[in-house]
Model the fold of this input.
Amino acid sequence: MDKRLFLQRLSALVAIPAAPKFATAASEPAQDLAWALNVSVLESCSCPVFCQCFFSGKPPAAEGMEHHHAETAKHYCRFNQAYQVNSGHAGSVRLDGLRFWFLGDAGDDFDKPKLDWAVLHFDPSMSHAQRDALLGVIRHLRWYRPERWNSYRIGDDARIEWTADTKGATATLGGGAIAELRLSTMMGLQDRPVTMSNMGYFGYPRNSGFILMPSTVLAYRGDRPFEFKDKGTNGLMTTLEMTARDFPT
Done:
């Protein structure tokens, strides 16, 4: 990507204009490539702000375990990630506007050969051709591959709602019956959002920088439920980009 364009995108994201368009300020991927993807993600996890897994690869002890001996404290990173494709294609299949949701528990150590468990859900508006094309794209990254997990499955299709504005962001899976995340923008100097830049995100080669949004709700209400309310756990929003050019054969 052209460096000047990348910096312009980052500036637009950090500024957060009044409309929720800030989450999708992205150019159209190059059509001469076999595939390209530009996607925004809302993430919340059970770690404190900012999730130490990005730096150490190991989650902290679970909340409420402070008085337990370190060897018996439970460590885990339970997460919700709600994705919205801003623009993209795989061959002739358009991916614009698609939504998918990835959730699970990455366990106590990201360096392990396999993480604990994960579930991938698609919005029912997605066609079979779009689903197959999107899977082909995101599985260039190890994070989304079944072999990365001790337990991995594709869950039932469910409606994904995804909104973001200057105050925060909200996403629900199945109207919140399956999963939910609610984030509140952390404001810093000059009443502008606190951001982080130049940090990697699960193998994506580029991102726009991270807006810190502590979580007010992090919940999965499926077969392995977890829920955190008003705990101020980690939350963020960023826009990610990758193309076939980043993964030469």
Q: What stands out?
A: Confidence is low (pLDDT under 50) at residues 1-29, 64-72. The longest helix spans residues 3-15.
